[in-house]
Specification:
5 helices; 14 strands
């Protein structure tokens, strides 16, 4: 965990609601961030001091693409707005990189009524490694314009009833599934997701271990495991895990939803 300053070098409006920022960092070791890891960001004012306006009250969570030499790219909503030259302080990296099963050939990414940013950041590395990638946008997630994604990504859209064209095929072919849900009540929403997807499978063949993962996006007051605000409970022994340390992705078959 490090605290470093970053400068916004370039801004790209990728669609009506989201933007990508290219950052240069004082601590160059943080360019090695991997998909799944994020940062907690707060603006720095024109005098070079940490903003004391307390807006936002908590640091914003910025999801990062795999770092390139001399550049870190993050994706976030267009509100609030930023400009080239703006300075921010970044705390991180937060969490563990996404973990894939060995020899993965096909992956299914599901955004259930929530923006797919934590899923989108993994797409470039998946494509580079020749993993067949399908992105499903359900409910409010359909507003996410996918024109900027690699054309090799197969994109489907559907309603909140978890129905989309080719759903049975996509679920049966995927070696792993990663999903995001709204932050209002993540565990309840993930339970809805698991129950909805299970109807596509024979009841005698539930999702196996390391197959269906939920990406936790709850606000993180500290990001270092000190506040216990991001605790999730395991189903088998009731053990508590801190999403900021052990997450963000958890095997949904192991959680008490």
């Amino acid at each position: 965990m490090k605290d470093t300053r970053a400068r916004i070098e370039r801004l790209r409006r990728i669609n009506a609601h989201f933007q990508q920022l290219d950052l240069t960092l004082e601590d160059e070791s943080l360019y090695k961030v991997k998909p799944g890891q994020s940062f907690l960001a707060r603006p720095i004012d024109s005098g070079g001091e940490l903003s004391l306006s307390w807006h936002p009250y908590l640091r914003e969570r910025w999801w990062a693409y795999a770092g390139a030499q001399g550049r870190l790219t993050v994706e976030l909503p267009t509100n609030p707005s930023y400009h080239p030259g703006d300075l921010v302080t970044l705390l991180g990296p937060i969490g563990e990189p996404y973990k894939y099963v060995p020899n993965i050939h096909s992956i299914l990414l599901i955004a259930y009524d929530a923006p797919p940013i934590p899923l989108a950041v993994m797409i470039p590395s998946l494509i580079r490694n020749q993993v067949n990638t399908t992105l499903v946008l359900l409910g409010q997630a359909q507003r996410y314009d996918t024109a900027q994604l690699d054309p090799l990504v197969e994109v489907h859209r559907g309603d909140r009833d978890l129905a989309w064209e080719g759903a049975l095929h996509d679920l049966s072919q995927a070696h792993q599934i990663f999903a995001v849900v709204p932050q209002d009540d993540e565990l309840l929403r993930f339970r809805e997701l698991v129950e909805g997807l299970q109807r596509y499978r024979d009841a005698q063949f539930p999702f196996g271990p390391r197959t269906l993962f939920g990406v936790m996006q709850a606000p993180l007051p500290c990001g270092v495991g000190a506040c216990d605000a991001c605790l999730v409970r395991l189903k088998e022994n009731g053990e508590l895990k801190r999403a900021c340390l052990a997450g963000p992705a958890f095997d949904l078959t192991t959680l008490k939803l």
